[in-house]
Amino acid sequence: MRLLQTMGLMASVLGGVGAYAQAPTPAATPPVRWAQSFEERLPGETPIGWGRRWGDIGDDLLSTSNIQALTGRRALLLDRTVGEKTPMSGVGVRVPDIQRGWAVATINFLVEGAGHDAQFSLLIREISAPNRVVASLGVGDRNVTVTGVGYAGKRTLGRMQAGRWYRVVLMLPTREGGQTQGKAQLFERNDAGAFVPLCENLPLDAVAAPTSGYGVMELVTTAGRANYLLYLDDLAFEQE
Question: What is the model's pTM?
Answer without folding.
Answer: 0.86
